[in-house]
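thought: fold this chain, then report.
action: predict
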Amino acid sequence: MRTPKTLATSLLSLSAAALLAVSAAGTASAAPAPAKVPTSSSEVSSHSVDDGGSADYWTAERMRGAIPGDVLAAKAVERGSKAKAAVNRPAGAGAPAKVEGTTPTAQATQLQTKANASETPVKHIGKVFFTLRGSNYVCSGNSVTSSNKSTVSTAGHCVNEGPGAFAANFTFVPAYLNGSAPYGKWTAKALYTPTQWSSGGDMTYDTGFAVMNPLNGKSLADVVGSSGVQFNAARGLSYKSFGYPAAPPFNGESLKSCSGTAKNDPNNPQFNAQGIPCNMTGGSSGGPWFIGSSSTGYQNSINSYGYGSNSTTMYGPYWGSVIQQAYSTAAAL
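observation:
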């Protein structure tokens, strides 16, 4: 087995592949109710956040100087690579479930495999900034449909150390471009992640959700829209992923994408993850994977980890019922 490094280690050494292409999803005009999932709260960890002026804290200088958050996943990948858990263990398995997005979408027609393609800003995709143990970090995130119209998806390691403390100063900047915040800086009021991540740093469940405070009297989805989500989908689909890679050779100032067909991780099959062709680096962690070939499809994973300084594959967790439960808990707040 190869010795893995995470996107985090790509802070200096790791490039990770981005997610796959997007297929268009139907949408609903009203805020949808979250899909039904098991209700055991023991599988979801949460943390209430006092924003304490987080938006003001994130000056353009601090945003540019934030450390790519993928480094926080390194210990979990290293530890998990030694595990002997069964391949394709329940993540957890369940019936396929979809929740529609809140803006109209058009059907994408053709998938093209690309690595680090440059993208114009997408309103619902942005950068995530947060503080852990006195250090400032940056990841990527996406506004997802929810009853509260205020939920952002990202990587688990961008919400909680896994295991360890939850993030502070958590702020989402949609459509970030060269230091600008065209739709404002949205602060979090609560963070959620599967307990398997927050208590053990299990890479199988490296996904987190944040519920954002209103800004200027409006909810996040009312301003930037939101993506539909899908859980317990088939494996081996085509995806398009997005993120803001900040480790060299990128600078994190603009949106990038990758696309391709998902394949199982041959190095650590116990993670139950899938990978697509991508060389995005640290800072892209938490960026959304959309089924199909555009940013208008159902989100079905996030950028999580890769291997080595010249990685050409980005891996993302399988979104099963455990991650669905974390989503549903956050979306209902």
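thought: worth noting. The chain has one domain: 9-331.
final: tokens above.
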